[in-house]
Amino acid sequence: MMTLRCRHRPHRSPLLCFWLVLLLVVIAVLFMDPLFRDASRHAAIARHAPTAGHRWPAPADLELLVDSRDQGGEGGFRAPAFLRDDQLLVAPSSAPAERRGSGVAARDGRRRGEVEPRAGLSSLAGKAAGRATTSGEAAARRRAFDEAISEGISFHRRPPESRPAACLSQQYNTSLPTATVVVCFHDEAWSTLLRTIHSVLDTAPARHLREVLLVDDCSERGHLKTPLSKYVSKLKGVRLIRSARRLGVVGCRVLGAARALGDVLVFLDSHCECQQGWLEPLLERIAGDRSRVVSPVMDVIDGRTFRYNATRDLIRGVFDWKLDFHWEVLPKQKDPLKTVEPIRSPALAGVLAIDRQFFQKIGAYDPGMVLWGVENIELSIRVWLCGGSMEVIPCSRVGHLEQFHPSFTLPDDDTVEKNKIRVAETWLDAYKNIFYKRNTVAFFIWQSESSNCTERVKLQKMLGCKNFQWYLSNVHQDLYIPQDRQGFSGELYNVGAGYCADHKKGWAPWDGAMDVSPCSGNGNQHCEMNSLKEVRWGPMGQLCFDAKGDRVVLSQCPPKQQTLTRLQWSILKNGQIVHLLTEKCIEAVKTERSPGAEKVAHSDWGKRANGKEAEEGLFLRPCSSDPRQQWHFEQLVDPRRS
Ligand code: UDP
Ligand code: MN
Known about the structure:
By secondary structure, the chain is of the alpha+beta class. Helices cover 24% and strands 21% of the residues. Strand 17 and strand 18 (535-537) form a beta hairpin. The longest helix has 28 residues, at 14-41. The protein starts with 13 loop residues before the first helix and ends in an 8-residue tail after the last strand. Manganese (II) ion binds next to loops.
């Protein structure tokens, strides 16, 4: 803490000294005023913190402190320059208190429908300078889930058992490495954050849990300030670090990792609920091989009802050619013992466990990534290519809250695309062209702005990482590799309709019907006809043009090296696309609509469609010279020429 001394020197006037002190006091009050306001607004929340006759210690987070215990990580890893200590507010949790079972009421006392500022980036500069912003405080915050429902649910609820039966009899080594559970949060709701913390404390064996490390990513919501510090100071084994600058998931986790004391880092979102026995199987896999990165099976907490829905299938993580992450359902295993075996996973989501030193050795997260998005894909590729592996552990279960939309705003619409560009430029080698063709927005950003990945490429060289071809041949062998031949790939434009082929809106893309809709130009309508004469659709390339009666639909493409004549097509010079089995041509059938009328059939299309939307779409018809049977592939971008 800073102390002020007014030294008595004969030539200094005492009056000047008095005014100086007064000025400093005024500045200090102005500076802290929002925090005080905040504290009183949320005094009700603090009442719900564990009490046990304990007087609150002085609010530690009002002091600018740096935790002197840990000065960064081990193994020569230096935290990126943007994580300087002077930007951190650390609230040490020192109060001796009960670790669990505080019997806290679930409700946090926060007023329903309370109006709070949106987590806009424009306000962050003010925050970083130590001023709470008022801009947008009147704006209603869009809720990403139903907080009122969450508030009515105990912090200590026990979700229904979701592990396969064979897990319950598994025994784990008692001398496993210790874990630091890192929970980054930005403006998380009180109830979901507290339920996350308590569920870890309630389920993780004390001997394996070194600490829960909360990292506040410059939150603005009042309950996350003094009330949270007070609450956390009562929990044994929970530490809270605050960043005075918005770091995003990447920076926040890197900060948490640099401060963690456990052997293994477990990254959890701030809205999770852990099942009994979730931690031990993760630690055991890492103890067996420090380069294994492991994930629980993610169960789903419904954002509307807070119902806990168990994931019954065997799943693994994958990403597509647009660099979007998916959980992929694997075929059922008949042998119950096989259902509990670790599942090799080409990628993992955000919740995972990783040996702390291995994490630092392979370069943590990419600090060039902004705020949120695809940092998990970058880590996944790097882990696999640079000496590690990834697994989903069926006996470890963690519930994750499914939100209606992201709970925070990104600086601009291009944030995720820019992060994707970093992945493509660093890791995809020549395969990045496949990505850019399916994500033309990213391509145009890449053309207009340079993204400096040299540090990451250097890291790749230093670590001696393998190339992306190796990843495709050894890790995600099932990912279809598009050929994107000139003239046979791009948006499939219909001359008669002036629209592009698209899957029918409102229908599931798989097993759904094909249609035409306005050409998007963003790569979402990209498809290709490959040398096997399949027309492949979608960013995974796993859906194929198929015929169901006279309708053109999408169905799962056959496995590699197998072709079904039903799925084969050829495009003629005159633009006709012929179905090889029936020798019919694809025709776009579209009902014309006029303003005001619900559906008015002006043309013969309309007559044919008879005003029924179900009769619109792509159909097989006897081949003719009708322009609605004329198609051509429009390649939107050609990354090779840039
Ligand atoms: N988060 C953060 N800073 C950000 C964005 C997110 O600390 O700028 C936190 C967020 O509170 C959550 C975790 O990072 O605990 C992952 O974010 P989110 O849950 O929104 O990601 P998703 O589950 O949608 O992948
Ligand atoms: Mn989340």
